[in-house]
Amino acid sequence: MKRISTVVILLLLLVVGAWGYNQYMQKVTYHRYLQAQYDRSFYQLVNSIENIETSTGKLMVSSQENTTIPILSDVWRQAFEAQENLSQLPISQPELDNTSKFLSQIGDYSYSLSKNVADGKKLTDKDFKTISELHNYAVYLGKSLQDLRSKIQGGYDLDNLNKKGTQKMSQIDSKILNVNMNTVNQQMSNYPTLIYDGPFSESQAKLTPKGLTGSNVSYDNAVSIAKRFLGKPVSSAVKYSPNNGKIDAYGVELKLTQNAPSIYVNVSKKGGHVIWLMDQRAVTKVNISETQALNYATKFLTVHGFSNMGNTYSIKANGTVQFNFTPVQNDVRIYPDIVKVKIALDNGDVVGFDATSYYMSHVNRKIEKPKLTESEAQSKVSKNLKIESSRLCIIPLDGGKEVLAYEFKGTYSGDTFYVYINAENGVEEKILKVIKTNQGNLTM
Amino acid sequence: MKNYSISRVKVVLLILILFTTFCVELSTLNMSIKTMSNLYWGNSGSDVSRVQSRLKDWGYYDGPVDGFFGVRTWLAVRKFQANNGLNVTGIVDDQTKVALGFNISKYTSISSTYTPVTSTTTNDDVYLLAMLINGEARGEPFIGKVAVGAVVMKRVRSPMFPHTIAGVIFQQGAFSAVDDGQMWLPPTQDCIRAAQDAIAGWDPTGGALYYYNASRVQNYWIFNRPIITQIGNHIFAR
To answer: Which residues on A lie below 8 Å from B153 (Cβ)?
Structure first.
């Protein structure tokens, strides 16, 4: 009897052992796989940075645009790739901040240079100075990363890359901090990635709000401004956390009834303007049409002192429609001063309002007469585009500049495009493509 | 003797249990390799939520777009099939998919002339962002959910972070909901709405790049970041 139980226990051990071994082997496989992914990212990162080194070196000796443009495009591409791989590494973000920023900037810089060269401008001495400076940092980064690679590569110990990598990377990163990026910063551009919320919905370069007028208001004052803005009787109005983001503002939380979802309003400290409003209410029914909603939105803007606003774009989702408005001055649409209004389709109430861009950039603009006529500008647009409409507008460019441009809306084989032609010199500044989705039209 | 036989039964049972778990383990590993092309009761994921939102748009479905194929989705699919002259099975098969307007074959022929497109990538982005919001800020008020989404969108535009929504979300150690797997719960309707708002450019934070839960913060470097505002339990910083 005893022998049988021993056999049973042995069998049991065997089974458990086999199971455990299987689990262990799985773990090893996964670790190796993960490690290989990290190693690949790391190798590609070093590779891209070495290519940036080489290309910036070549730039110093190139003089013709047919060589300069491909090299600049290559730097841009490599910088983008390096940044993607950098963000795949198991190293925490604060250790990568400056390196990542450096890569973005060298990419943006070469992109804007290649545009300049394509427009027929030569690289200046100042450009070459900046390029050589950037080249030196790329060399430093490449050397340090190679050094790091030799220390952490191999083995399947994940902690190795994680701990040592993080430590080393923060040392490397702190050196990058000292780059004199002044010249580069001016060229900083929005990345040509997806724009989800209509053309020119956000331009980042402006730092101080230009459109705020008036003297500072108190918090209590802000609460009554918020109540007036909503224009409906409220059951409670309380202060919540102030906001010192792009525009210094007081936070006000309003409730229509005791149990209704809160409505949040931000009122600027300077001048007491409502810059932002969000109603948390979910809209479940649709009672009014989009045209009616647009009327409500336009009326709301007029009541609150935004006159001469034109609707440029709309998104419909979840029982609401969001309209983007721009001021229209002498028939010119001013895209930097965008105001967004969101209307609930059940009762036509305003459930969202955002005038941050407006207050950031609105000034009294003197609009120059365009040098090109509309037909002259239209001749610069591709013949493939079937033009449906055109108008004059002011658009924000990379680096916070604004230009007067002709906007041509047209179709090509069923796809809709917006093309912007500079009204001064006929340069094609931007091409946006409208993406159709089931929520509405997005412009890319 | 009696005692002994009972313990033997126990041992045999134990072995059986161990063997079955072992076998189940192996079989599930093999199972997961196969991909499910048809959707039916019990499925979940982004495909289901795409079907749900399509059915909702067309008025067949009035439940939440949560990516879970439950009773209401099943009923809606049956209703849709009945109205469109398809076999009423409650299963989203190839015919139903075509009737719903989805492209079933990946390898359609590519024509040599330019063809216009309808994008679904944006929908996937909304769902991905909604999952993150759900994992990170389920207990927060709606405005707090939008705020978390807005931080992701702000990072996408920042030179210091990756330039895609997926890149930002899956960056190493960026979000605890990714690390602890909470992100993979089906998002609530509120989270999907918040994700849409964030993608449409609504930012309650005024440009925050970071946030932390005041009561549960683990990274101490984050205290050095200039604070912008507090929404719900999250403190937002530049």
So the answer is: 196
